[in-house]
Specification:
- 66% of the residues lie in helices and 0% in strands.
- It has helices at 13-30, 35-42, 45-57, 61-73, 77-89, 91-94, 102-113, 118-131.
- It is globular.
Length: 144
């Protein structure tokens, strides 16, 4: 059965689906669920990555990081590459909202490299140069 718009014309199935998704997101927000909590169970890694980009656009960097990590765990190469860059640049790009973490950056870049990412290969070269800096050599070794 087709949905009918108030003008009397049939609605497209895409518009109807989009409205359903928006309604679901609004309902989740009304119940106080964060986007990352909502995305954890109900979306694909690619959708989580897109939600992370939207969170970045509106300055919700904690949400961005949580969603990027979820997408990265789902082997989304773009999320892994972005996590590598965000964690390398940290405060340079995001102020105090995101701390630089070379060790976690290495984890995500390594995962993207294992999937053949050329972007991650270039980021890895940069990371290796950072690790040769005096404070970077021991940074990822666990304390004794």
């Amino acid at each position: 059965m087709k949905s009918i718009h108030s003008t009397g014309k049939p609605r497209s199935p895409i518009a109807t689906t989009r409205k359903g998704c928006v309604a679901t997101l609004l309902a989740a927000a009304a119940y106080g669920l964060s986007m990352s909590a909502f995305a954890a169970d109900m979306t694909s890694p690619g959708q989580k990555f897109q939600l992370a980009l939207e969170a970045q656009t509106v300055g919700q960097y904690d949400e961005m990081m949580a969603l990027l990590r979820l997408a990265g765990e789902g082997d989304h190469i773009g999320a892994q590459e972005m996590l590598g860059m965000v964690l390398l640049a940290g405060p340079t790009l995001y102020g105090n909202a995101v701390q630089a973490d070379q060790c976690e950056a290495a984890k995500w870049l390594s995962r993207a490299l294992s999937q053949g990412s050329e972007v991650a290969r270039n980021q890895w070269r940069f990371l290796v140069q950072l690790r040769h800096a005096p404070q970077g050599i021991e940074s990822c070794k666990p304390p004794i």
